[in-house]
Amino acid sequence: MDNITFANQFLNPRKYGNIILDLNPINRLNIFVALGISTFFVNNYWYGFALVLLFFVIAAVAGRLKRYFSVYWKVLLLFGLFLFVIKAAFSPGEHMIFQLAGIHISTESINSALSLISKVLSFSGAIVLFVQTTEWEDFTYALEHAGVPHVVSFVVLSSFQTISDLGKSAQVIMESQKARGIETDGNLVKRAKAYIPVMGPLVLNAISSVEEKSIAMDARAFSAPVAHTHLMELPEVTKSEKAFVVFIDLLLLATIIGRIVIWLL
Amino acid sequence: MKQWNKLTIFLLPIGIAVNVVGGQLAIMLKLPVYLDCIGTFIVGSLCGIVPGLIVAVLTQILNSITLPTNLLYIEIGMLFAVLAHFFAKYERFKTIPRTILNGILVACVSCCLAVPTTAFLLGGFVGTGASAIVTALMAAGWSVLPATFVSELVTEMMDKVICMIIIFFILKSIPERLIVKLPNAKFFVKDLEEE
Is A104 in contact with A87 (CB distance < 8 Å)? Predict the structure, then answer.
């Protein structure tokens, strides 16, 4: 990328050229969470599984299928498979299919297991999908636009940086402690003993760097009481996008009200 | 919003990172405990309730990126933040025996909060080492609630007592010249005049 194209990319609002990635991050969060919550109010597990499929389709349309699956497979395995097995084996039920020692599988237990995992899977899917289709800086930009103080953006974005920084220095401290003779392999007690000599210097180091950091940030007008400018901007929200979000929210509201009405009657 | 202490703002990301990295380190050393709330307690006791709450909530949100069911336990971290402030206020971090008592108290409280979520919403399954104990107990004929309770209590007790001891040493070794600049300095530094 030459300098001109690099400079030009900041002149226009950031566009990904993809219908899902170009939604405003807050609206996207709204849509996904509304879908994820709706599963708790629909009393049919096929709906939950349909949502799981839908999220795969959305991820594919957004071109993030690989990223989505690389996180979601763990949820699928832990909650789709193990939770199903445990729930099916230990829930009470009348119509026994299989019984052995403490394990009793019945039609009721399989039904309750299916309805539980459909809810967990679809709700988890909504959140994983949002995270995998959104850049954090876009999301915090949208939040700032909606009136959240810029300190929040700083805390969120710098947490990621600090996590990777501290991870690296943990590695360094561990190597040095090993050189000093602390064992990080072996039995449980040995490994537990290695934890404190790594964690102690790590935390103290991080805490004592706070002062320098705050001076450095204040030198760059971090806490100046004026409106902040942004290097990168997001496109304005279109009317049709707004209408779509309101439509989804109304659907969710209708589902919740419907559920309460059925429950009351 | 009243003007925040500057240092507090810069401690927030560090608290979050310490939570996450502490947990990762425990996994790396294959310890059977989580140790993922050290940052919450440190920020909560040094800076007060609200910064502690922010650290707790953001940590849990970051954790739920990979495992969204973590969101269901968000209230426990928030409770830790509140407890941390009061532990600092009533000087519960002054000696080791007190610190161990803190650990036991925190473990009991967090256990009582976690069990209903685990037992009723997730059927006793959390996807960690504790799940193995639950499954074993349930196969031996226990019902969901006591099985979850026992397994949670055992793991929480170990986790929180170790956690508290680490926090005790860390709080003790933070230099006073830094502590005096933080909101809760009056709980840690003697003969500090009230503003």
Answer: no
